[in-house]
Design brief:
142 residues; 6-stranded parallel β-sheet; 22% strand
Length: 142
């Protein structure tokens, strides 16, 4: 059975909602799933999972949240090579540049991105929910 970690930071709850949908998609595909807030996850836990979904909303000038999520993610970077990874997050403005930058960074570190990052304008609508479920499934099937 695949073991999947869903690790996220959410300020308004939108990315948290997305995280629970990614979790559901992975469970529906037969995985054992653990969900963590960024402050609960340590880099050494990366080895315990076949795949990891990271979720963070766009902050400031389209960047990852700096006080909890970014330090945790930075610590995990050395473990990304060859790891199946999915990215997701919400935004309230701009066009999703933070996700493109994040994807490029993960790819440069050798991560096996299972699809394009899932982004939702604020709370996920029906299309966003479907994309989050599909991301969870893709983490299992890749």
């Amino acid at each position: 059975m695949n073991k999947i970690a869903v690790v996220y930071w959410s300020g308004t709850g939108n990315t948290g909602t997305m995280a629970r949908m990614v979790e559901t998609g992975a469970k529906n595909a037969g995985a054992e799933v653990s969900i963590f807030q960024a402050s609960e996850f340590q880099a050494d836990q990366m080895d315990d999972y076949d795949a990891v979904a990271f979720g963070c909303p766009a902050m400031g000038s389209e960047q990852l949240e700096e006080s909890e999520f970014q330090p945790m993610f930075d610590a995990c970077k050395s473990k990304l090579a060859g790891k199946r990874v999915g990215l997701f997050g919400s935004y309230s403005w701009a066009e999703g540049e933070w996700m493109r930058i994040w994807q490029e960074e993960c790819q440069s570190l050798g991560a096996d991105l299972v699809d394009d990052g899932v982004i939702c304008l604020e709370a996920p609508d029906a299309e966003g929910e479907k994309a989050c479920l599909a991301l969870g499934e893709a983490l299992v099937k890749s």
